[in-house]
Input
Amino acid sequence: MEMLALGDVFVAALRYRVSRVLKGNRDAVLERTRVEPEFADMDRGTYYDATLAHTERVAVRVGHDTTADFFVSISATAWMYPREAKACPALAADGKACTIHERRPLTCRTVPARYDVPAELLSRAVRATVERGRAEHGYECDVSDSAPVFIDGDTLVDGAYVKDRDAALAAIDSERNLHERLLQSERLPKPPEIVKAAGPHMDVSVSFPAVVIEALEAGAIELPAAREFVEKQMTLLDAAISRALARKDRGERETTGRFRKVRDSYATILKATAK
Ligand code: SF4
Output
């Protein structure tokens, strides 16, 4: 639970990402499988098999209907609040640098070789990230012949990225039991609700207090670390609520109300776990 170490920066959320994997007659499935443009030149069978194998590793199968299996992957993430910033809370005010670069999350460390992309699809995914960054954000990655070699074919050759990607996948493996428990929790949305709420973006985020309780009960985190995380989150929430109140923006009332509820839940956890 690397989020514990980032409790002084992020207002935490739990993010469920839903994947729908078609099943049935293989030819029909391959025909209907949606392929992103960056993978369009691949053999469809190779694409489908690689995607399915990776999904089975990083996500939990939660159900099915007549045409597809549903998988849910779980990650801790930051709520992008205050909303006016429209960016990661750890981004510097000038929008150019990560203020926690040395301890940034594994997800950030693995960009553009993201851990949730199968190894067989890496080169195409990296190329698409580079091209999208240039087109949409004006980033210019050095892709000249003199640039350090980062990937060779689909094989990552940059030692730091190999290590970080392996660490991210190992973290997924080690938290699998916790993820399965969270999906059964009475305190959190159940899989049918998650699938229904995921919408076109196929993901849904919920606030974190219930996760802290489940992780404590499962022995996935120690009490002192949990209490420290909760105290840091309350400090961040107090600051966010104060800033929101100072802005006197009616449009923020709902968010402020949600923050208050989350803060109250954390206060209850502190009280319940006090010696
Ligand atoms: S690398 Fe970017 S997204 Fe990740 S923590 Fe830093 S600022 Fe946030």
Q: What stands out?
A: The first strand starts at residue 12 and ends at 22.
